[in-house]
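Support case: user asked for a sample of complex input and structure output to validate their parser. Sending the pair below.
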Amino acid sequence: MIVGVTQLAYLVASALFIFALHWMNTPPTARKGVYAGVAATTIAVIFTWAQPTVTHHVWIVLAILAGFVVGVPLSRVPLTAVPQRTALSHAFGGAAAGLVGTAEYYLGVSEGPEHLTTFRMVALIAEILLGYLTLTGSLMAAGKLQEVTWVPQRPVTYPGQNVTNLSLFGLALALAAAITLHPTAPWAPLLFPVIIGLALLFGVLLIIPIGGADMPTVIAILNSYAGLSAVAMGFALDNKLLITAGALDGSSGLILAIIMCKAMNRSFTNVLFGAFGQVQQAKGAGAENVYKSETPEGAAQVLEQASLVVLIPGYGMAVAQAQHKVRELYDQLKKRGITVKFAIHPVAGRMPGHMNVLLAEADIPYTDLVEMDEINPDMPQVDVALVVGANDVVNPAARTDKSSPIYGMPIIDADKARAVFAIKRSKNPGFAGIDNELYFSDRTWMLFGDAKSVIGELVKQLAGGSGMH
Amino acid sequence: MTDFWPTLYVFVLASFIGMGVIRRVSRLLHTPLMSITNAISAIAVVGAILVTGGEYPLRIRVLGAIALFASMTNIVSGFLITDRMLKMFKTDKRGDGGHS
């Protein structure tokens, strides 16, 4: 009877999770999705807690309270810090799966071999491998995104790196196979921590060769791993709610990772084992490359004459926290009857959809945020393209230069606009370390400086100018 | 041993549903999508509660309690930040805050 009720509750929760994701398909219904998700999780917690095997309640209450104490502040981080918060929560998810898996294994050992069937062992091993490697991998990713000093920012590579990583993983699998076949052998409980150690180490090694520009893909992959570790837990506990929710998360991470890879014209293996940011060197900078720079006054005058302006934001906008100044510029231009659109590249920023959230935070209507594929056909009609802290996503070398590491990556066709202004902090190349031909085009003028202050200047010019008319 | 075939069916079918549903999510919302799936995959809380609250040795329950804390953190922060971000997506400028 009790079993039936619990199963029914889990079934309802599974359905609610599916609805939660379904409602995420458009902004007007998305918040309903959150409520559905909260309802599903609440149901799952209550009915699990009510099971007769759960007899110790104090620790549960304390752990849940601690979760609230840490979780609430974590949900209030500035939106520019959302990528590292996301990576951190993948780490928490991985840790939870790994710890439960560990507990289940040692319970099984003490309760006897009949509890550790081969099938269950495979599930448990998958759970702890995925869980622990997600834990350290995500912590490394979060450290890189937060620019913590002891985590190297630039990709770390060394000769034989892939061989090392793969042999390490191979060793972990071999040990895993041994323990799966003999889960209660006297040596097995000692071998188990070794496997945990290897998974933790592998997570670190997997992330250190990856650069900032690849973070959107990596975060999506880690998202997928966190989901799959929940699936493995579901197999180990024979719990279909865990499997359903984990599978939803796993496929979500996978789809996002595929979208990110397509947007960079790269494959999974290339992202994980390719170590971007290494390829450039050489390519002796041609002497004929000369920038034209422009003052904010001059740029403001050109902007005033435009009828269609497209802003192309990139990670630089997030770094400079320039989104609110961008909003002021948007207002100034709109006031003059100028059409303003934002061209959003799928990999702009450090996680999928990063730019959209920042611009939405600055109160820019989402109807003015346009995807790359939609805006590109209109780019030749654009009077001014204003590049705000984006670099590789507008580099025409992706279309023309076969030797470029970003060759083949779809880009926003900023170079087809009638005029281009590019705001850039310094004359150094972008994250991928590649020179950008766009900056040397005869239609491009550079605005050097911090994105926030340059846009602030533009706004001041436009506001002052309108007063004189 | 539990018959794992039905479980495998659930996994495969749920993955297909996931693919179908996620593919239709607006690109505008990929960041909130990631934070809500974070919260959803914290359903590992179910396993953590069973381990923490059961009649088990202390060290086992300690592992469970840490896992429960980690999952609960993800649930709370994941849903709260998703809702906070979604509130910001508006069709029109300021004023009639009715849009969500």
